[in-house]
Amino acid sequence: VVRWLGAVQALDFGQALWAVGSRMSAGTMELVEKAIADGEILRSWPMRGTIHFLPREDARWMVRLLAPRILTKMGRRQRELGLTPDILERAMTLFRESLTGTRLTRAALLEVLEAAQIDTSSGRGYHLLTAAAQSALICLGPLEGKQQTFALLDEWAPGARVLDGNAALIEIARRYFTSHGPATAHDFAHWTALTVTEAKRAIDMAELRSVNVEGKTYWYAELAQPPVESTLLLAGFDEYFLGYKDRSPIVSATDAEKVVPGKNGVFRPTVVANGQVVGTWQRTITTKKVTIAIAPFFAHAARKADLESAANRYAEFVGLPLAKLTIE
DNA sequence: CACTATGCCTGAGTACTTCG
DNA sequence: CGAAGTACTCAGGCATAGTG
Q1: In chain C, which nucleotides are within 7 Å of a protein Cβ?
Q2: Which residues have a Cβ under 8 Å from the Cβ of A259 and sit 6 or more positions away?
Q3: Taking a C-beta distance cutoff of 8 angstroms, is the pair A217, A199 a contact?
Q4: CATH 3.10.450 fits A231-327, yes or no
Q5: Rounded distance, CA A193 to CA A260, Å?
Q6: Does domain A39-156 have CATH number 3.30.70.100?
Q7: Is the model more confident about A278 or about A126?
Q8: How far apart are CA A26 and CA A21, in angstroms?
């Protein structure tokens, strides 16, 4: 699934597991977690300055192609935090030395910095870690209990593909439009955080097909499957919503505000019926059970039986009984 | 020990300015 | 005149501290 999508936004770890699981015919949370533990799915900050799941073999070229732009944009914040080029360079050396042959938790890595007299307070430590990830030096490794670990990218993704320049642009365009198409050049630029000019150049080189709809050019790599009836409970931050700049084909402006209340950048899980976003939902997971509350945007947004089976599919994924389902 | 409260951190969006 | 860059906002998540 991750290979097909190219990259999966994973700001919220639990939601991202479901973003993958909801696209599998019978995926379980355990399976997705195992793929992460084994490194088959790798986590880093390849684009837009946000954490993503990546196919291990593609992590290196994706980070190298897309992260440098973000790293430049972070310059101002780094100056605010007093992170001089000298401190950045020292931190990179410390990360390289302390992670060679091993993995360390976030807390342990911050201690390494502190021990070298690098202040990690008020987000400085966090920024050094993301900068190192965006420089393709480190990435997130397996979980250690509930703690995130970091690893050297070259160690955690051994033998990763090397793709540069135009070849990398062509590959990212093909990957995006295969899974996200039909989509516009602006959608692609938004997703990758490439400039619109570069995005268009990538599209030109990738030999994609296009179709005009309401005066806009939509690109795609393969003919889509014919639409099927479906009622889905998609994850928060799901690619179906995050993967496009223009969401008007799937949701009205009014309803979009219910997905992102206050336009605050926090995307709630969505109910999608036959391609349209028709509601939001939330789940509560305890040690023994799952409860789900669905909030449709309007009456008859979806059939009750379909919502029930979608909710049960989620409970199966988590591996716990669905104790309660409310539809408000 | 489980639950709740607190406060900081966060990324996407918007509006605006600057650039080419 | 569209693209790129900048400043600012906001609510959820998370770590941590506090409470029953």
Answers
A1: 2-7, 9-15
A2: A241, A251, A267, A268, A270, A277, A280
A3: no
A4: no
A5: 20
A6: no
A7: A278
A8: 8
User: In chain A, at which residue ranges do the beta strands (DSSP E only) sit?
Assistant: 8-9, 41-47, 50-55, 104-105, 138-140, 149-152, 209-213, 216-220, 231-234, 270-273, 276-285, 290-296, 322-327
Which nucleotide in the DNA or RNA is closest to residue A194, CA to C1'? C4
Dist. CA A265–CA A251, nearest whole Å: 17
Q: Please report, rounded to whole angstroms, the spatial distance between the CA atom of protein residue A297 and the C1' atom of nucleotide C11.
A: 20
Q: Let me know: does A146 contact A33? Beta carbons within 8 Å.
A: no
- Sequence ranges of chain A with CATH classification 3.40.630: 231-327
Question: How would residue A75 be classed by pLDDT, with cut points 50, 70 and 90?
Answer: low
CATH number for domain A165-220, candidates 3.40.50.10190, 3.40.120.10, 3.40.190.10, 1.10.10.10: 1.10.10.10
Interval A55-68 mean pLDDT? 87
pLDDT digits (tens, 9 = 90+) for A96-111: 898 899 888 777 787 7
Please list the helix, strand and coil fractions of chain A in percent, rounded to the nearest 5, in that order: 45, 20, 35
- Whether pLDDT at A90 is above 60: yes
Distance A252 CA to C14 C1' (A): 32
Six-digit token string for A279: 């509601």
Specify whether the CB–CB gap between A123 and A78 falls below 8 A: no
The 8-class DSSP code of residue A184 comes to: -
Which nucleotide C1' is nearest A262 CA? C10
Label residue A187 left, alpha or beta by phi (over 0 means left) and psi (-120 to 50 means alpha).
alpha
